Amino acid sequence: SQQGEEDPQALSIQEGENATMNCSYKTSINNLQWYRQNSGRGLVHLILIRSNEREKHSGRLRVTLDTSKKSSSLLITASRAADTASYFCAAGGGADGLTFGKGTHLIIQP
Amino acid sequence: EPEVTQTPSHQVTQMGQEVILRCVPISNHLYFYWYRQILGQKVEFLVSFYNNEISEKSEIFDDQFSVERPDGSNFTLKIRSTKLEDSAMYFCASSERQYSNQPQHFGDGTRLSIL
Question: Structural domain of residue B41, as residue ranges?
Fold first, then answer.
């Protein structure tokens, strides 16, 4: 399967600091997506990076993709308390559905 | 902003009973999905649906499960003869197109508790 696996499993930082989460996957991909899940809520799409892209930005989010290492990272700059959530990378999609990792639980300390 | 809505938010059912989980996808979306998240585990794909038929289904989606789009707005997941291990969060999602480069929009889920 095109599993995504995130690390670390949990991350606690001070507000204003940057948070970096990593994701590894097993098979070749066309693109990789990142989602956020607030406690008790559904997943929210954050950003998609295509296999021919190396870096992509969206606001305070920066995603990188290294297809040779089958890995991606999500950087959140200038973190805020509202960024506290679980973050998931997801491979696949389309008719086959998305394959998610276990996620990184991010806690932003005020 | 349009969103996917799911009802009920929490369903408690006796083992062996049938349960129907309901979803209203975003109105102009054509592709629909169900996912499951057992407490503490990954979100897992169950089934994708397009043009009133199943596109793909995972190994989890056995004969106990069925999906239906009974009208122009609702998309349902039926679980027959529920088991204890069916206890999980069930998420509905929709996308405008069924390509892997399309973001999927998720509802807030239904927490299913089997007693």
Answer: 5-98+106-114
